[in-house]
Specification:
The chain is mainly alpha-helical and 371 residues long. The protein has 14 helices and 4 strands.
Length: 371
């Protein structure tokens, strides 16, 4: 029978050896400074755009990890509505986008504040008050006698990956968790001096308790980013969820192994490398914004309204690019124009080197030329 970390006598006295990951921690600190330097060269408008792009990525990927798919456009519109950048406000059809954005903006705005149980319950309410599951208990710890299990497989052949503490001890466990989180913050009595280490422990600790019926993964990632932000003294510019989504199997494997012991050196090693990967993706986002700014400086005045509409729509997909490239058919759909006009516009974009061609014949597609 499997014994989980919370069932062991040393819970939650996590043990770890940092001697093997000092190089990684130094690399994270150096890259944090490098990213800060790059951001400082952006105008205020471009810095806002960078923040919006990262929140979009985080909201999309943190939902995808949980098997939900939310429109990027709805998320972007929700962010701009909240920040007062849309006048008039844009209608958002998917209420889940509003909830995800509300949570992430609140977490950024309150990063320096102590973590409280009331804050966590509010975040849960923000995230899931739009849920279509009418039976879901929102804004409160989970209740009931049924064990909270993480399983996979088919009915009758379930594989149990983890079983969380029973619901009747969750309130007390969460008191201990918030007390630990706040006492290990920078400048506090039990401060953990490496922010990625504290973030790794915070995420594992929270996920081990699994205090909610749903939304534990998403809120657990927000808590990890809060720990990172407190460590550097400002809201971090990265998306842990984007890094996790790129290799979900590795994430769940590391979490599964870590949930069976309170010796968590391997987990911290995994998590530190996750942060490093997330930072690399942030650099790509910043570089994309700089290239985007240069693109518009070069071409905006010589493109017609149809072409600008298509370019802006392609830019909304971020550094990953417009999936499948732009075709005449997609161009017609976006602009509502004829095939002849779409073909002529695309040829013009190619001629002035705003676009580059991929493929040929019937499969011809076009990408933005950001080089």
């Amino acid at each position: 029978m499997t014994t989980y970390n919370w069932q062991k006598s040393d819970w939650p006295d996590f043990q770890y050896d940092l001697s093997t990951i000092h190089t990684t921690l130094i690399s994270i600190a150096e890259k944090m400074g490098f990213i800060g330097g790059k951001l400082s060269y952006l105008t205020e408008n471009l810095q806002t755009e960078a923040m919006i792009n990262l929140i979009v990525e985080e909201a999309v990927k943190t939902s995808e990890i949980e098997g939900e798919y939310i429109s990027r456009l709805d998320i972007r519109s929700s962010i701009k509505n909240k920040l007062g950048l849309n006048q008039p406000l844009v209608r958002v059809s998917d209420k889940r986008a509003q909830g995800a954005v509300e949570l992430m903006l609140d977490a950024r705005n309150t990063f320096a504040q102590p973590l409280t149980q009331a804050m966590l319950l509010d975040w849960h309410l923000m995230l899931l008050s739009w849920s279509s599951n009418s039976n879901l208990q929102v804004g409160c710890w989970r209740v009931g006698d049924e064990p909270m299990q993480i399983v996979s497989g088919h009915y009758g052949k379930w594989v149990v990956h983890y079983e969380a503490p029973p619901s009747d001890i969750v309130p007390n466990e969460m008191k201990k968790f918030t007390r630990w989180f706040n006492s290990t913050a920078p400048g506090k009595s039990r401060a953990i001096h490496f922010a990625p280490v504290r973030a790794a422990i915070a995420h594992l600790y929270f996920e081990s308790i699994h205090p909610f019926e749903d939304g534990n993964g998403r809120i657990g990632r927000v808590i990890a980013e809060k720990a990172l932000s407190q460590g550097v003294g400002y809201p971090v510019m990265l998306s842990l969820s984007q890094a996790i989504e790129s290799d979900k199997k590795a994430y769940y494997k590391a979490l599964n192994v870590a949930s069976k012991s309170n010796e968590i050196t391997d987990w911290i090693h995994y998590f530190a490398n996750l942060v490093l990967r997330a930072q690399t993706e942030v650099e790509a986002q910043i570089d994309f914004i700089l290239k985007k700014s240069h693109f518009f400086d070069t071409f905006e005045r010589i493109l017609n309204e149809r072409q600008l509409k298509v370019v802006r729509r392609m830019m909304q997909e971020g550094a990953s690019g417009f999936e499948g490239g732009m075709s005449a058919k997609k161009y017609m759909t976006i602009t509502g124009t004829s095939k002849a006009t779409a073909t002529r516009d695309l040829q013009h974009l190619l001629t002035i080197q705003a676009f580059k061609q991929i493929g040929s014949g019937r499969s011809v597609r076009y990408e933005l030329n950001l080089s």
